Amino acid sequence: MFGLAIYRGYIGTYSKGDSKGIYTFTLDTNTKEITDLKLAAELKDATYVTISDDNQFLYAVMKEGDAGGIQSFSINAQTGALEPINKEITADGGPCHIIVDKAGKRALSANYHSGMIHAFALNNDGSIAKTVASAQHKGSGPNAERQEKAHAHFAGFTPDERYIVAVDLGTDEVVLYTLDGENLAKHFTFNATPGSGPRHIAFHPTEPYAYIMTELSNEVIVCAFDAIPGTLKEIQVVSTLPEGYEDLSQGSAIHVSRDGKFVYVGNRGHNSITSFRVNEHSGELSLVEFVSTEGNWPRDFRLDPTESIVVASNQESGDLTVYSRNKDTGKLSLHKANISVPYPVCVAFLSTPL
């Protein structure tokens, strides 16, 4: 299914400097070269994008004045162009994360500044029907500068989509919700180490494990995930930084390979991607390597659909870095750096080749 071919990707960016919105590119998985890099759609602070499973629609977070929300687009895979469909504005500013369920019927967003998550209903034509439900996080953490209040940084689904999962950097919590009609009901709360600042979560594709990336402590919290009752239990905490490293660094993205053998995380400040091998019996992680992102502040990275290539986005240096990935060892080898994109934040791919 994922043979050598050309795939289309999209990049969400901050609206700073020369950045205009969402950019697109093509990736040749044979040559590992990125080409046809261009603006796909103008949109203010489209810092996170997600693509429907059928590759027909792209959804992006956005800002509009002091408010914000999400914007839907139809995708022209051949040209990369994005045609606006509609938007849904919420009163609490621009969100930082968005995801769509497998059926393309629901979208979720997380808002860092307000500490809220929102659930949206989607129509078959890709349009956003309405905001269905919202939940306001409350609380704080010991880091007075970063945890003065709730800061929701991720909203997604558990693998079976039974529960909605929200990660809050400000309250050191991962909260599981049920969505019943127009009510987001809190189901379970996992409490991370105070001050760790959890940012994102990724689930193992086949085994009952979840991996929480912390921003403030630069760690991965490995959890046993019991899907039916919907609970998380900590089983391991591992640093994503080299021993003895004491300079500024903040954890960013986390992704699990499709075969479940490796976990990859980003470190902003240390400016690296850390690779871990997954113990198939326990889910615990062991270090494989640290690899430089050859740029400044890697906000995100993504395994391409073949998972033989990784593309990292360096926000502050304004560039992409491309690696070859060894599927047996999990190691990354630098292919090309300094591919210019203004303030890149998020990388996403269409799952089918052109």
From TrEMBL:
It comes from the Bacteria. It holds the Pfam family Lactonase. GO terms for molecular function: 6-phosphogluconolactonase activity. GO terms for cellular component: cytosol. InterPro entries: Cycloisomerase_2, Haem_d1_sf, Lactonase_7-beta_prop, WD40/YVTN_repeat-like_dom_sf. Belongs to the cycloisomerase 2 family. This is 6-phosphogluconolactonase. The lineage of its organism: Bacteria, Bacillati, Bacillota, Bacilli, Bacillales.
